[in-house]
Amino acid sequence: MTTLSSGFARARRWLREHPLAFDATLAFCTLVAMICSSFTDPGDGHGPPAFGTRTPELFSVLLMTLTAAALVLRRRRPMQVLAVTAALAAVEYVLMDPPAPVVMSTVIALYTVASRTDRPTTWRVGLLTMGGLTAAAMVFGSTPWYSQENFGVFAWTGLASAAGDAVRSRRAFVDAIRERAERAERTREEEARRRVAEERLRIARDLHDVVAHHIALVNVQAGVAAHVMDKRPDQAKEALAHVRDASRSALNELRVTVGLLRQQGDPEAPTEPAPGLAVLGELVTTFRNAGLPVEVACADRDRLPAAVDLAAYRVIQEALTNVRKHAGAGAKAEVSVVRVGTTAEVTVLDDGRGSAGRRPGTGPADGPGEGDGLDSGGHGLVGMRERVTALGGVLTAGPRYGGGFRVHAILPVEARTGEPERPGTAGGTGLRR
User: Fold this and answer.
1) In angstroms, rounded to a whole number, what is the distance separating the alpha carbons of residues 327 and 283?
2) Is the CB of residue 243 less than 8 Å from the CB of residue 225?
């Protein structure tokens, strides 16, 4: 049974790949069926048909051969084949009595037209063929007009039209389902690519914020240690201790950030929460240890949503890093986080005298000693703006009148990401230093 079914499937696949061979086989089978039927005498209707009691005329055999040969081209020229077969079938009804079953070819041609055109065309062509052949059989046949042979012509041509239309409708339905499935698959793939791109951008921003901040501090402290190593070893030792602490913090944050790339079920998945305003004091302490005086003012408000809390922390971190890198010696910074209605406003000010060309995003890469951080090309400012814009907020940054620089971010408290609030991440907003 398995061998038979596989052989049938191979034959069907071969015939589907070679439609002309299939049509030639169908035409030959139709010719054999018509010739065999032409030897049958239907009788007077009171008994069974008798086989071999009559012999088809040579003209009828010629008509049957011509109509069968026309079926070979039924896919390429369906309308022309239908016209030829219908005309030859009508000639058979007019000239021969009893007629040979030439109409069998017309039935197949009509089915082909109905399966390859639209429904209005099927109705028009089908009714014209059915009416013409049935009228020819009733008018020119020797049997009464109400005989079953005449109504059989009407029934078989009508059945061919209905079957062809049903096949065409099913093909259209299957094609529509396949197209919708392919479109849905493309949409899923595009959505997956978009989500991957957004996640990569978010992780790239986090990595930039972490690395730029800590590497800038390491650079400053390493420079201090190298400068005072010979004359004040105690101060150099303290600077190296800050370098060690900053590098350890950088490694820890990098481990947490890169850990987000792990698959579910991987070992050592990150369990620490993302940084927020709750650890703002620790962040400010690292800058103070690096020699940057920072004043912090945070209004005592309710906790911020997790996404807003993280964005505010990253904006402050990047802004203070830029102050340390670009504002020059003796600069001071002020940080404020206030809740205004449904928004949270984050402001970072400094009174540095650094040149405008060395402010973030406004000039070329920094020179030695100042440009060792990652923001020399302006990526820090772009990252801050992207992070704030992703939450539906607005970020402005530019020089202050009279000197210095100002970074101001307005973040909506109702985060559009729909993330739940993280307990304990915004508890530091009541600090005032």
Assistant:
1) 18
2) yes
| pLDDT tens for each residue of 202-240 | 777 777 766 666 677 777 767 777 777 777 777 777 777
Nearest to 304 by CA among 181, 143, 419, 152: 419
> DSSP label at 73?
G
What does the block give as tokens for 297?
């003012």
Cβ distance 257 to 203 under 8 Å?
yes
The whole-angstrom separation of Cα 9 and Cα 26 is 18
Reading the block at residue 257, the tokens are 């950030």
* Contact partners, residue 82, CB within 8 Å, separation at least 6: 106, 109, 110, 112, 113, 125, 129
What pTM was estimated for this model as a whole? 0.47
Each residue's pLDDT tens digit, 184-205:
888 888 888 888 888 777 777 7
Which long-range contacts link 243-250 to residues 24+ away (Cβ below 8 Å)?
243/217, 243/218, 245/286, 246/214, 246/217, 246/218, 246/221, 246/286, 247/214, 247/218, 249/214, 249/286, 250/210, 250/211, 250/213, 250/214, 250/215, 250/218
Alpha carbons within 13 A on the beta-carbon side of 341: 4
Closest to 147 (Cα-Cα) out of 45, 46, 38:
45
Q: State the residue for tokens 């009407």.
A: 154
Coil, strand or helix at 350: strand
Which are the contacts of 336, defined by CB distance < 8 A and separation ≥ 6?
A: 296, 297, 298, 345, 346, 347
